[in-house]
Amino acid sequence: MSILVVAEHDNASIKGATLNTVAAAQKIGGDITVLVAGQGVAAAAEAASKIAGVSKVLVADNAAYAHQLAENLGLLIAEVGKSFQYVLAAATANGKNFLPRAAALLDVSQISEITEVVSADTFKRPIYAGNVIATVQSTDPIKVISVRTTGFDPVAATGGSAAIENVAFAQDAGVSTFVKEELVKSDRPELAGAKIVVSGGRGMQNGDNFKLLYALADKLGAAVGASRAAVDAGFVPNDLQVGQTGKIVAPDLYIAVGISGAIQHLAGMKDSKTIVAINKDGDAPIFQVADYGLVADLFQAVPELEKAL
Amino acid sequence: MKILVAVKRVVDYNVKVRPKSDGSGVDLANVKMAINPFCEIAVEEAIRLKEKGIATEIVAVSVGDKSSQEQIRTALALGADRGILVETSEELQPLAIAKLLKAVVDKEQPQIVILGKQSIDGDNNQTGQMLAALTGYAQGTFASQITVEGDSASVIREVDGGLQTLTLKLPLILTTDLRLNEPRYASLPNIMKAKKKQLDTFTPAELGVDAAPRVKTIKVEPPAERKAGIKVATVADLVEKLKNEAKVI
Predict the structure, then answer these.
(1) Any idea which fold B2-219 has?
(2) Beta strand A196-200 with A223-226: parallel, antiparallel or unpaired?
(3) Which of A149, A196, A248, A267 is deepest in the core (most CB within 10 A)?
(4) How do residues A26-78 score in pLDDT, each as one tens digit?
(5) CB–CB of B214 and A136 under 8 A?
(6) Residues B126, A105: contact at Cβ < 8 Å?
(7) From edge to edge, which strands make up the β-sheet containing A116-119?
(8) A292 with B238: CB under 8 angstroms?
(9) Looking at the complex, does the CB of residue B147 fall below 8 Å from at least one CB of chain A?
(10) DSSP classification of residue A10
């Protein structure tokens, strides 16, 4: 089997999600090539070559790929991918944007967000907000797959020594231009890969009250997340949303504060190892998935918890 | 300018679905159906572009069996001008839907196509991107703001670390994220009027598209259940459990 993994990176470094995707590729089994497409990606390519289990790194270093525009990446991945049997990418906002475009150009389907490799052509993936797990079999000659990172433990970032080769192909589709990016700066761990996540919902009442959660998170070395209700109400920015259509997390400890537990939210966090719920409504559905439930006023319980740690 | 907006009939978002006991599929008997929430946002955005004087006609399209007419009528009641149903009772997958929508785009020549970023049944998040690939158009996925200026549009997208702004040439494909707008409700007079609006029907064969599935569902099953937890009485109890029982802090 020949497997192409499209790297998630920021031109300078390889993102952790790439390591989970390589792990999924190893479960399929075969020769793993990583494609690093960007601009000024020498350092990222070097890092990719050290990932355990990777045999080759292909580098497409061109202005057309600087901002991961789907129109340009789609053309590149379809061109490079046609000589592989599998094309994999992490199901991040970025991967979700370009991978289906590449699949359609290859005239094959995409299997989205696999959580398990059953065999070389059969995979498990959650549907209906994770209320159903489907086992699906692909009949396509090239299998294009996005990988839910929480389903696969990452491979080691070091230990490999893959050869690095340049890709000659470079094409700007000429229909899209990057203008700017407003990224939220935070010293806390990245939500998707954090060991502990503290999330707030509508019960937080306003954005200012999230300070309570930031203080708790900093004490625990945790990332901060939120329910859709809290994001829609403008308490916190969109990139904190955990749920069916937001970020999927599976930390060792997930602390849900003032979150009622709609099925769409549960879809994004119920694979967490330990779940704690703090909510004043003892009948809130979140308690049905929580290992430890505390029925209490969060405005007293959260500061008390922070002090007790 | 003409806008094409795609709508999908799905299980209502409040319904918790279960697999059939034999694992052959999802039990949808007597389940409430609705327009996919992200498609509702797509319809709303099209209407707002018409209210701003940018769009002149909104065509709502759905791909599915006869009952999808209901969701097209919902879009018409909200403000779409006419509807198209690509009717088939076969199982449809995103690539096939994208090909059918491409055939409709070829017929209708819209400047903007708006779709939901994903449907809440299949959770695929593919169709808009695939339609963009097949048409060669630019794609503004997971959009939280759209501003049309002349022959291009400025699109703010929700990305993992925050927000990204792109300039995209028309014609283009947009997929909606949750913060793009808050959809309105249809008024009773508009629901009545919608019944009289034009709704054309095509089959995949009439559009010359092979819509056969490429992915076979072997079985469906419920996810692993979490074991029931306990309630703790105090913060001190909680900290004790986390330290000594769960050993996570």
Answers:
(1) Rossmann fold (3.40.50)
(2) parallel
(3) A149
(4) 999 999 999 999 999 999 999 999 999 999 999 999 999 999 999 999 999 99
(5) no
(6) no
(7) A116-119, A122-127, A132-138, B215-221
(8) yes
(9) no
(10) -
What average pLDDT does this structure show over A135-164? 97
Tell me the mean pLDDT in the region A80-98.
98
The pLDDT mean for chain B works out to 97
Domains, chain A: 2-166 (3.40.50.620), 191-308 (3.40.50.1220)
Quickly list DSSP for A73-111.
Answer: HHHHHHHHHTTSSEEEEE-SHHHHHHHHHHHHHTT--EE
What are the sequence ranges of the domains in chain B? 2-219
Tens-place pLDDT, residues A212-224: 999 999 999 999 9
Nearest to B160 by CA among A226, A12, A95, A85: A95
Q: Which residue has the tokens 């029925």?
A: A295
CB B183 within 8 A of CB B43: yes
**What tokens were used for B95?**
């690539």
Phi, psi of B110 (to 5 degrees): -75, 160
CB contacts of B100 in chain A (<8 Å) are none
Cα–Cα nearest to B206, from B71, B72, B94, B63: B63
With beta carbons less than 8 A apart as the criterion, state whether B145 and B36 touch. Answer: no
Taking only the tens place, the pLDDT of each residue in A196-206 is 999 999 999 99
Cα separations (Å) of A249 from A128, B182, B194? 17, 27, 42
Give B31-75 pLDDT, tens digit per residue: 999 999 999 999 999 999 999 999 999 999 999 999 999 999 999
Q: Which amino acid is at B48?
A: R
Rounded distance, CA A47 to CA A57, Å? 10
Tokens encoding A36: 């690093």
User: Residue A279's closest chain B neighbor by CA?
Assistant: B231
* Contact at CB, B16 and A103, closer than 8 angstroms: no
- Position A84 scores a pLDDT of 98
